[in-house]
Design brief:
Oligomer: single chain
Number of domains: 2
Distance between the termini: 78 Å
Number of strands: 4
Protein name: Flagellar protein
Helix content: 40-55%
InterPro entries: Flagellar_operon_YvyF
Structural class: mainly alpha
Shape: elongated
């Protein structure tokens, strides 16, 4: 049994692979999800931005991001919604990082690989004594 304190309210609960909050907070999240889903069912609201949804429904942005990341809100039908990049916070629609952060991280990884290879080549460097030049 995996007992934990609820990150939302602090109550003790049994954590399951399906729920990361206590049952009462889960019910509250479900109620808020229904409010958001009902808001987005209207055709004119499908073009709403994150700020407009927060303002219209009163549901916190963090909870909307949680709904999106868990796949409960699909972005295919909501063109103006996204969630923040894990690194810079820019709104993205797929993955965990934006393309700029991915390129930057990939460049840093390549730089580290080059540096490791340079150090490895340096450690295997062989020195030869030139007897004729040194006169010995």
């Amino acid at each position: 049994m995996n007992l934990e304190n609820c990150p939302a309210c602090g109550r003790l609960f049994v954590r399951t692979p399906f729920r990361d909050i206590c049952p009462s907070c889960y019910e509250e999240e479900e109620r808020q999800f229904q409010i958001v889903a009902q808001f987005l069912r209207r055709r004119e609201n499908r073009l709403a931005t994150m700020e407009q949804i927060v303002e219209a429904t009163g549901v916190p942005e963090a909870l909307l991001v949680k709904f999106i990341k868990s796949g409960r809100l699909t972005l295919a039908q909501l063109p103006n919604l996204g969630y923040p990049c894990d690194r810079c916070g820019k709104l993205i629609r797929e993955g965990r990082m934006c393309s700029d952060c991915s390129k930057d991280l990939q460049g840093q990884l390549e730089a580290v690989k080059k540096e490791e290879k340079r150090k490895q080549n340096e450690s295997f460097r062989t020195y030869y004594a030139d007897k004729e030049r040194n006169g010995r």
